[in-house]
Amino acid sequence: MKVLVTGSSGRIGHYAVQDLEEAGHQVLGIDIVPGQKTGLVVDLTKSGEIYQALARAQAEAVVHMGAWANPGVVPDTRTYGENVQGSFNLFQACAELGIKRVVSASSAQVYGFAGAPPEFVRVDESHPTRPINCYALSKVAGEQAADYFVKNFGLTILSFRFMGIRSPEELDREVDQLIAHPEKGGALLWTRTDVRDAALACRLAIEAGSPASGPYNITGGRVLLDVEANELVHKYCKGVEDRGNLVGVESPMSCKRAKQEFGYTAQYVWSVSERHLETDICLM
Fold first, then answer.
1. Domain boundaries in the chain?
2. Is the full-model pTM beyond 0.70?
3. Which CATH class is domain 2-278?
4. Helix, strand, or coil (residue 37)
5. Which of 59, 170, 262, 277 could be disulfide-bonded to 166 (CB atoms 3.0-4.6 Å)?
6. Confidence band (pLDDT; 50, 70, 90) for 282?
7. What span, in angstroms and rounded, lies between the C-alpha atoms of 84 and 87?
8. What value does the mean pLDDT take over residues 19-25?
């Protein structure tokens, strides 16, 4: 398949290009800055550049990871405005060029766990969105734009609510940091996602037959600490509704929908006792 990857110099985009290429797909990576995986420098706020990139790639599908990845990298007006404009421009171009499959990066920041604990566990995609910064707000708007193009133009757009994406080097350090300060882990539900699993999820969604559009939680399979997740939630997150479906050390954020629709299961397990361990264990 011919795939365009936006944000190909970024944390997820770089790995997504590599994973897709290794699986035999033809990939063109685009980014606003040059990089190892950037085949074409493109500004997503300029719609004409997007059309040219899609035409050059002869794209049949798009993995859209291009965005300002957090608040504070640029002024808030740019974070929100350019993230939203870039996504709308891309979706519009796909609609007009007949490209029907898009995987688009949203974020678990839309749930607002840095400002308040979850309303219930396990957290699935029905949990209310509560953005507390310009970046999270831009991701909510991006999901809404995706819904618009799905409804009105027949696109299939999967919005991935990524949780705590980290490189292997970063993950090793963060395990140690969380051991020292477990009370600080609630904002990411004591969970991280190996960037290689994020890339895997993108490829599986591109290759799947007919996955449903809409939001998908994408995260690691378990909490980093060797402590039951239920204990962590109830010790550090007051007033959370326990729906009785949190078992053992599995992450309080559920990826059940992603598993059902395109077979995603985290392959890289990180914890106090397991570091950089590939597994076939399903912690859903």
1. 2-278
2. yes
3. alpha beta
4. coil
5. 170
6. very low
7. 5
8. 98
Provide φ and ψ at 156, rounded to 5°: -105, 110
| Mean pLDDT, the chain, whole residue set | 94
Cβ neighbours for 256, distance < 8 A, ≥ 6 positions apart? 124, 284
Residue 60 Ramachandran class (φ > 0 left, ψ -120 to 50 alpha, else beta): alpha
Q: Strand runs (DSSP E) across 68-111, as ranges?
A: 101-107
Residue 274 confidence (pLDDT): 78
Neighbours of 180 (CB within 10 A): 7
Could you tell me how far CA 89 lies from the centroid of its own chain? Answer: 20
Distance of CA 204 to the CA centre of its chain: 13
Which residues, 6 or more positions from 182, have their beta carbon under 8 angstroms from its beta carbon?
190, 225, 227, 232, 236
Residue 212 DSSP label: P
| Confidence class for position 156, pLDDT limits 50, 70, 90 | very high
Determine how many CB atoms are found less than 10 A away from the CB of residue 65: 29
Q: Which of 102, 89, 100, 97 is nearest to 56 (CA)?
A: 97
Rounded distance, CA 187 to CA 226, Å?
18
Of residues 205, 206, 133, 197, the one with CA closest to residue 165: 197
Which residue's entry shows tokens 């949780």? 163
